[in-house]
Amino acid sequence: MAFFYGLKPGFSARLHAIGDEMEKRGRIDNQQRGVLYESMIRTRRFDDARQYLDKHPGLNVAPPPTVEARPSAKLALYSVEAGSRLKEIEAPLDGQPTLVVVSHPQCAFSRAAMEAAAKDPLVSQSLGRVLWITPQDGNLYLKEILAWNQAHPATQVFVTKFKSDWPMFDERATPSFYLLVDGVVKKHFSGWPRDDGNMRKLREISETLRQETSR
Q1: In a domain, 48, yes or no
Q2: Where does the source fall among the domains of life (predicted)?
Q3: Helix (H, G, I), strand (E, B) or coil at 192
Q4: What is the residue range of 21's domain?
C-alpha cells in the first residue's frame, strides 16, 4: 500500500522492479499490472507508462497523455488540452494573495463549491485570484476535467504535477482551501457541507482578495 500511494517516482520504480520479478515468476495478473500502471501515472512517469502499456495492451486503462513540457517552469501545473494532451504551465503565483483550492470535478463536494463560487456575487468577483488544482492522482480523468473546463470557464481546473511542489498543503480531502501569500498559508479550511457549504469562510477570503486587488 505504501508503494501504491507513494507520490515520488522512486516508489513507483521500486514497485515496477517487484512487478518485473513477478512477471518472471508468472505470478502477476492484469489487476496487479493495473496497480503498477497507475503508480506510473500517479508519479508522472508517463513515458514508462506508455512502454508498459505497449507490453500489456490488454489492460483496461486510459492511455497516458502526451505532455508539452515547459522546462523553465519553477512551479509547474498541467493544463488539460484536447486529445489527451497536457501542457505544462507556470503556476500563476506572484506573491500576492491567492486562494489555491485542491479540488476535482469528479468530487461532488468540489463541484458544489466551484458552482457556488461562480454564482456568489462577492466570491465571483475574486475568481481571478483563485487557482483550482487537482490532487496528485493515478487516474487523471482528462476527459472529465476538459469537459468541466469547457462548461465552467470561471473555475478552470489544472492538474497538479507533483504534490511535493506544494509542501504547505497537508489535507488529503477535497475541496481544501488555502490562502497563500508569498508561499505561506495564511488561512485554511477544508470541506463543503451540504447545507451552505463553507460559504461564509469563502466570502471572508474573497473579501481579502478583493481588497488586495483593488489597491
Answers
A1: yes
A2: Bacteria
A3: coil
A4: 2-64
Residues in the chain: 215
- Looking at the structure of the chain, the number of domains it has is 2
Q: Is the peptide bond before 175 cis (omega within 30 degrees of 0)?
A: yes
CA-nearest of 206, 110, 95, 200 to 155 is: 110
CB 176 within 8 A of CB 166: no
Nine cell digits for residue 213? 486587488
CA distance 65 to 202: 34
The answer to whether 129 and 99 are in contact (CB under 8 A) is yes
Q: Who's near 62: CB < 8 A, 6+ residues apart?
A: 84, 139, 140, 142
d(CA 179, CA 22): 46
Q: pTM for the whole thing?
A: 0.89
Residues 39 and 81 reside in one and the same domain: no
Output DSSP code: residue 165: G
Taking only the tens place, the pLDDT of each residue in 98-153 is 999 999 999 999 999 999 999 999 999 999 999 999 999 999 999 999 999 999 99
CA angle 127, 132, 134 (to 5 degrees): 170
Predicted pLDDT at 214: 64
DSSP class of residue 94 equals -
Q: Is 94 left (phi over 0), alpha (psi -120 to 50) or beta?
A: alpha
Nearest to 209 by CA among 117, 146, 142: 117
Residue 173 belongs to domain with CATH number? 3.40.30.10
